[in-house]
Amino acid sequence: MEYAELVGVYERLAGTDSNNEKRDILAETFADAGDLLPVVVKLVRGRLFAAHQREELGVSSSLTRDAIAKATGIADDDLRERWRETGDLGDVAAWAVENQTQQTLFSELLTVERVHDSLREITSFEGDGSQSRRVDEIAGLLSDADPSEARYVVRTALGHMRVGIGEGTIRDAIAVAFLDGSDEAIDAVERAYQVTNDYRVVAQTARDEGRDGLADLDVQLFRPVQAMLAEKGESLEQALTDAATDGEAICEVKYDGARVQIHKQGDEIRLFTRRLEDITEQFPDVVAAVREGVTAESAILDGELVGYTPETVEFDDREPVPFQRFSQRIKREDGVEKMAREVPVVVHLFDCLYDGETLIETPFSTRIDRLEATFEDVAVRPDEPLAGLERSRALTASVDADPEEMETPDAVTERYREALDAGHEGLMVKNPAATYQPGTRVGRMLKVKPTMEPLDLVVSRAMYSEGRRSDWLGRLYLACYDDSAEEFREVGRLSTGYTDEELDALTDRLEELIVSRDARSVELRPEVVLEVEYEEIQRSEEYDSGYALRFPRFLRRRETLAPSDADTLERAERLFEEQ
Ligand code: AMP
User: Fold this and answer.
1) Hey, whose CA ends up nearest to atom 6 of ligand 1?
2) What is the pLDDT of residue 95?
3) What is the pTM of this model?
4) Higher pLDDT residue, 478 or 55?
């Protein structure tokens, strides 16, 4: 397939705001894609890898500028100037190709396969000279591109397509292209995506095997399942009544660590985060614990990884380390063993998705029994290092139907207090009859924490501070997620609460996400999630959400959250109504 054809699709997508039109354009493209269907499904969103694959493109904006300069002969200063004006390196590339000062001698046609393979190839470059090989690879593509092709090659390399399609549009397009497009067809595609996490597989199955094929798709070892998410309970009583079935709810300690999904088959063990990233290499102590404790031949287990201080971890009253400290383990690439001794972890297991048989359609109470049959406790041994493995602390509570009338059982109140005293976040209240719902936030698992709830918000834009902190992006625009529009909506501007060190680290991260600049303001790819407290929510014309946070203060970065896990506009509205 000629790349120009796909570029035509991008241009049509970018040219309409209508989701239905976008869906139809995509459906037509998928239907015509033939053997290239899996590649096209990924490329329309500018993705080259499935979420759980470990490769990262490692392409920064400066590397991209180098490639444009190399391919076109235009000086970096001119490219920078242009970038400042247009704010998009894709547009800069198109302009540079249009105005290039050097002509390529042999021009080879760009095909979809070539663009895809070249960009994927980039991830395999390692060590000395890998940067310049990346530049060469992208420059090679640009030398053979016309201006529009150059625009999208660069946007794909940077992972930001600007054509405005979300997961929902892809899902609907698959349902229209290969099924009858009905609500049932959309549900079938959605379910298939939840278990496989991979639209390439879903699209191909829908095309080749129809609805029955989609229904047969199942959880698979070493392909992580989207984690079931929790809703916020407005109070303990409300959470208990919402989650109860037949007068019972299961209450567990809510730990403050990182979600981990453990896949094991025989000797092969892999660990994934909630964002489906593979973190096996960073946690050899957890791998050792799984090897020692998980007796089932094959299993997919869900749990929370928590770091404790080495002096206390072997005792009952162990002390969690601040999340900031624990999160260093997630990022660590070298010195992993040393770090594992310094910040020993315990895995608190709370669910089982597979034990030789898929369990996601099985009620939670049964899944717990099956979970308990898959493993034996492992006592943590920081010196080795060996992680601890244990079941999360749980109790079954009897619940009356009416939240107004209900008295919280003493055992629950006591457990709640105990959890907080031990430095954990609160309680998780779960419905014993609920199936495992990958990727969704339905009232089957409710979290209950004290205090007025802070919000998890995404940084959408930023400005450099003035004065002493002028090198840092200290003024951050915060956005919540509007589920229905699949867009972020701003709710305020943050400028306090961080230490210099935190701000420095935050700036480094945010600068990687810049998509355009205007003087001292930058627009960002919405990826970083911050936890923010505030005094109240007000109505406001200033932001496109219609609300503004009063006195927002930074609490911490939420590294384990994906942007789509940010709090929703609906929740902000509810909090506004309730205050
Ligand atoms: P939040 O990140 O605030 O939305 O809360 C949901 C997260 O709490 C889950 O994704 C888990 O990482 C974590 N968590 C901690 N303890 C538990 C538990 N006992 N059951 C389920 N999730 C838990």
Assistant:
1) 230
2) 96
3) 0.71
4) 478
Distance 439 CA to ligand 1 centre (A): 13
What pLDDT score was predicted for residue 50? Answer: 67
Q: Could you say which architecture CATH assigns to the domain 455-578?
A: Beta Barrel (2.40)
Please identify, by atom number, the ligand 1 atom nearest to the C-alpha of residue 256: 15
What is the chain's Cα-based Rg? 25
Domain residue spans in the chain? 46-158, 241-448, 455-578
CATH of domain 241-448: 3.30.470.30
Counting from 1 in the atom list of ligand 1, the atom nearest the Cα of 558 is: 2
Report the nearest-CA residue for atom 17 of ligand 1.
Answer: 254
Whether 264 sits among the annotated catalytic residues: the reply is no
User: Which of 301, 304, 529 has the most ligand 1 atoms within 8 A of CB, as the residue to mutate?
Assistant: 304
Ligand 1 centre to CA of 560 (Å) is: 11
Which pLDDT belongs to residue 427?
93
Please choose from 428, 430, 555 the residue to mutate so as to test ligand 1's pocket, defined by most ligand atoms within 8 A of CB.
428
Average pLDDT in the 256-270 region? 96
pLDDT surpassing 80 at residue 457: yes
Assess contact for 259 and 227: CB atoms under 8 A. yes
Query: What is the per-residue pLDDT across 327-377, written as a single tens digit (0 to 9) for each?
Result: 889 877 788 999 999 999 999 999 999 999 999 989 999 999 999 999 999
Any long-range contacts for 265-273 (C-beta under 8 Å, 24+ apart)?
265/221, 265/222, 265/297, 265/298, 266/297, 266/298, 267/291, 268/222, 270/222, 272/52, 272/224, 273/330, 273/560
- Ligand 1 pocket (Cβ < 6 Å) reads 227, 230, 252-255, 259, 274, 304, 350, 392, 428, 447
Kindly report, residue by residue over 487-517, the tens digit of the pLDDT: 899 999 998 778 888 999 999 999 999 999 9
Q: Are 93 and 86 in contact (CB under 8 A)?
A: no
The answer to whether 361 and 435 are in contact (CB under 8 A) is: yes
Q: Report residue 418's pLDDT band, with 50, 70 and 90 as the boundaries.
A: confident
Catalytic residue among 22, 42, 70, 254: 254
* Mean predicted confidence (pLDDT) in 429-456: 83
Q: Whose CA is nearest to atom 8 of ligand 1?
A: 254
Task: Assess contact for 391 and 378: CB atoms under 8 A.
Answer: no
Ligand 1: centre distance to CA 250 (Å): 14
Q: Which residues contact residue 364 at a Cβ distance below 8 angstroms, ignoring those fewer than 6 apart?
A: 250, 351, 430, 431, 432, 433, 434, 435, 436, 444
Q: How many CB atoms lie within 10 A of CB 565?
A: 18
For residue 560, which atom of ligand 1 is closest to its CA?
2
Report the mean per-residue pLDDT for the chain: 90
CATH topology assigned to domain 46-158: DNA ligase i, domain 1 (1.10.3260)
In three-state secondary structure terms, 236 is: helix
Burial 155-191 (b: 16+ CB within 10 A, else e): bbbbebbebebeeebbbbbbbbbbbebeeebbebbbb
Q: Which pLDDT value is given to residue 324? A: 78
> Rounded to the nearest 10 degrees, what angle do helices 76-86 and 61-72 cross at?
120
